[in-house]
User: Fold these one by one.
Assistant:
Number 1:
Amino acid sequence: MKICELIASDGNGGLESHFVDLCNGLAAKGHQVNVIVPQNFSGLFSNEIIIHHLHLNKSRRNPLLLWSLYKTIRNIAPDIVHGHASKGANLLAIIKRFIPYLCVATIHNLKSNLNGYKKMDAVIGVSKGVLAQFTHPRKQLIYNGLDVKPIQHSQSTLVDLCKQSIPRPIILSIGRLVEAKDFAMLINAWQGIDADLAIVGDGPLKKLLENQIESLDLSSSVHLLGYVNNASSLIKSADLIVISSKREGFNYVMAEALLQQKPVLSTDVPAPNEILPKQFLTPPSDSNAMHDKIEACLADLDSVNAEFETLYNWSQKTFSLESMVNSTEIFFLNISKAK
């Protein structure tokens, strides 16, 4: 199958990692994969992949961008064009009537404008929550997959980073310091908890969170560790992983934690709310509920781990890169046959 994969984002987060992993995985299965990407995507793809660089940072209605995209796709002449995220979907939606190929888009998060996705021949969602936003005759749930490689863990890493003088549980939270992750709520919830909270990540709210920690006199128990390369290597040395987000499409930290057999406590957001046991969910923005759940988990961590045992086993298959690539391949083949 000849596949054209399109992404307009120029970041370096989970979306971009997902895109690269999927493209490399499809190419490894013998498909001819062309990628249309911004200029900054280089050195990330396998040698089998054909790369087309476009200036995708222009407006999605920019005539030169749309003409360049149209010509590139027509020259590739793929069986399927697969756009990622809102800009990828909207670009395809604008030129779709001029290209005689199946157009698919993956929705990665909760969105207010879904018009681009509705015009696709088929839609993939990374969680049930993002797919539930709209109706479409041909949509498919495919969870993001991770390339599960052996991770070098240091049991003393988090202890050292938190500068513990007295051994006690360490709870880990990972993410950008932005409003959507709601670390302010999590810090409020930490009052009165006899454990260390390690928050890994950087972002524009760092100073505000530092001030909040100081004003609540939590400097000895709440630690902003900043950006850490390969933050997933810290998961194994934590006792519990916490997700405090106000909204999500899919949470990679949850998947990484379950693959490393660490329990996860989360706010009630996609996809944690369709995967985690209900007793490990709290309402978004509710610091009191989060406080009570953390205390309950810390009271008996052995029982918490026992409750996650079945989920750990399920995650090994569901969140593998192989599962994601295989599911995408099958979906592409099915919609091609049904065309």
Number 2:
Amino acid sequence: MVQTMTKKHFGIMGFGTFAERRLIPGFQKAALADIVALTKTDASKARERADHYNIPHAYSIKDQDKFFGTPGMDAVYVSSANCAHAGDAIACLEAGKHVIVEKPMAMNAAECERMIEVARTCKKHLMVAQCLRFNKTVEHFKKLVDDDALGKLVTGKCDFHSDGKKSTRTWKYDKKVAGGGAAFDLGVHVIDTMRYISGIPVKRASCATIPGVLDATHVDEVATFLLEFKGDFIATCESSFKTKRNLLLELFGEKGYIRAFDWNENLAKVRVESEIEGTFKRYEIVNMDMYAMEIDAFCKCITGEAKNPVPGEEGLINQRIIDIVNAEPEKRRYKSSS
């Protein structure tokens, strides 16, 4: 049954730098949602940040029962550390809340499978926050593919390089907290983007990293994935903490190509060039706030007005691919079971 659309009330679990930089502006622009509660490790800091943003309720992360009892709270955006995604999402689902969980979905595929099963049992929606599916540049690429403007896809490339030394999130180098390095933080974005744009299942994947040998504490600082899709389409997806910021997205088909620079920047103008059936173009695409669009899309899912745009099953596929980064070099292979 489709419900009447009214604003859905969200809590944010794990209210840190990401939530302040990305989620707060996103919720402020979202037409269908607002924030009614948040959690942080420290209760007093939670109250201080809640007051700063005029959010009614604030709790310590340990006070989950009180958090789940927040009057009128329909859903939770889980933006805690990667190692807490599965436990936090499952707790929210079992408390009767719909859940958006940040990427990567979890620490490994087994945790993802458990999250999906709990969501199914609790009859609640579980969405993975692959925000770049709501990026206008990605949307433009996907429309060209869906309209067959490029013809049969041949090769693709999707890169997300970011200087890790400039990040305040030092925990992303801690394997126990992050699960992996560049692959888990950035690689999951580029893999999902190439999967989403092409609409073609991945049949095999392989991975190379720097450093080449990883252990229980060291994470990959550079990860390059080679994706082999059904139907003779191949793509490379690069992620890096060691290099200067470099963002490139390109697709080559039998009828032509399209390329975008700085493709995933939020609220920015993106330079695009294409040559399709002999016609060369240069133009710009304006990326809107993808977090606001992501949140509103989930609200429509909750009310039954639209399907879940990124269900847990999609996150599981991405997770199975990025998980291979933690295997021994000679075993970094993925093969689809379908």
